[in-house]
Write a structure and sequence with these properties.
The chain has 297 residues and is of the alpha/beta class. Helix content is 44%, strand content 18%. It contains twelve helices and 13 strands.
């Protein structure tokens, strides 16, 4: 049996669409929240069992993991330890964990958290002499959905601002990945039984500078935008002021810091091992901007 977390989320729904498109025949157990929209699951035509529960509840996970052979963990990295504890307890054969390239950030204090989580997962496997196959999938910045909280923020800003501030002339490199490509990649890894362990970066087709990304968005929106370079240090100061002024409710400090950091990563191993082929950024942006314009009109 396949256990899936996060199937109603951004890239999770694209994974579900791949299962549907390929007429996946095996039994699937999905952990969902009580308020999750499960319409796509309900109409999938697949052999899916929905289970409502809390991924922080170890006892619940221990029970729901019974009879499971493969785990596809798309929900937050912060549930990985409790999930893997249950997987090991139930002798799961393969665990595919969707984590993040944020673990490589030199700024992110949370990168230490990510590292600690993965160290704890490794320690659990070692201490229990578990033979579970562990696969890490690491998306870069995910986009491709109107509520992705990444690209759509940039799209809204470029749409509304004719004078557009960019950090350090927008020289830092990004490699955004479309959620549709992630859904396909998850399915490819799931169906490739030869992959029992590994660490795979899932990035977009090729790197692009922040400034060129904003220019591309501006061109697709058919807007005339003037870009103004802002020093990274000033951007951080403004972000800190906003954080203090809003009592921490608006905290962009880390996001601003990372705008001065290259976030482009090769996906060569994924291409080699399971045929990963991400779409071009221009194609993905066309789709998302079309959805955005439809919503705001």
């Amino acid at each position: 049996m396949l256990l899936v977390t996060g199937i109603t989320g951004h890239s999770g729904r694209y994974f579900l669409q791949e299962l549907i498109r390929n007429k996946y025949e095996g039994p699937i157990r999905c952990i969902v929240r009580e308020n999750s929209d499960t319409t796509l699951i309900d109409n999938s035509g697949l052999n899916i069992e929905k289970v409502v529960g809390d991924l922080e509840n170890q006892e619940f996970l221990n029970e729901v993991m019974s009879g499971v052979t493969t785990v596809m963990h798309i929900a937050s990295i912060f549930y990985s330890v409790t999930l893997m504890r249950a997987a090991i307890k139930n002798d799961v054969k393969r665990a595919i964990l969707v984590h993040t390239t944020g673990i490589y950030s030199k700024y992110k204090s949370a990168s230490e958290e990510y590292q600690t989580i993965e160290e704890n997962v490794g320690r659990l496997i070692k201490e229990n002499n578990s033979k579970v196959g562990l696969i890490y999938l690491r998306p870069t910045m995910i986009y491709g959905y109107i509520n992705d909280r990444n690209m759509v923020v940039f799209i809204k800003m470029v749409d509304k601002l004719r004078l557009f501030p960019i950090i350090n002339q927008g020289r830092n490199m990004l490699q955004p990945v479309n959620g549709r490509d992630l859904g396909k990649a998850y399915y490819q890894v799931l169906m490739n039984s030869n992959i029992m362990s590994g660490d795979y970066i899932l990035s977009g087709e090729k790197p692009i500078s922040m400034k060129d990304l904003f220019r591309m968005i501006s061109q697709i929106l058919d807007k005339k935008t003037t870009f103004i370079s802002v020093p990274l240090s000033l951007g951080v100061i403004i972000a800190k002021f906003l954080s203090v002024f809003t009592l921490g409710k608006v905290d962009y400090i880390e996001k601003v810091q990372r705008m001065g950091e290259d976030r482009s990563f090769s996906h060569e191993s994924a291409v080699k091992d399971f045929g990963y082929q991400p779409m071009s950024l221009s194609e993905g942006l066309e789709i998302e901007i079309k959805e955005y314009l439809k919503k705001v009109q």
